[in-house]
């Protein structure tokens, strides 16, 4: 819980401070956060059997780095989408992250773990050691997904400024068009008199 609060606050603060002087800061913060989280989590998963406190410290670091992106992703979703579609964009972003993250990942890790049990213990009932090892190995998938996510955020850094400018341009054009009918109507009323 503390890592979540700290990560969200730190990500939001870093994003607000850096984006003014470095417009690509948001996706870079998210990408670096994921790329820091992945090895810390992998090391925690590796050490969990033998080391109690170092494991929790590494998980705290991993979760703090992972949570840097929550507020920033919401900001990015808002400023690359025009206002009438922002609530839909945010809803889909939340739906997809929860569908594949919160809802899908426990199932995926469980399926991998069960298959590993059969591989590690093909002819006998799994022992507690096999149960532990299969779940431990399956959890490495989360580290792999974090690396993929980090790379995609870093790729997004190349496009974020252009995407924001396109959204700003579309908003400006929409504002220009929405004000034109009232001017043209008023102009036509004057001409009609």
TrEMBL record:
Subcellular location, record wording: Membrane
Region described as Disordered: spans on this chain: 172-193
Cellular compartments per GO CC: membrane
Keyword annotations of the record: Membrane, Transmembrane, Transmembrane helix, Transport
First-listed, main subcellular location of the protein, grouped into a coarse class: membrane
Mode of membrane association: Multi-pass membrane protein
TM region(s), chain numbering: 25-44, 51-73, 137-161
SUPFAM superfamilies documented for this protein: MFS general substrate transporter
Protein name: Protein spinster
Organism whose genome encodes this protein: Arctia plantaginis
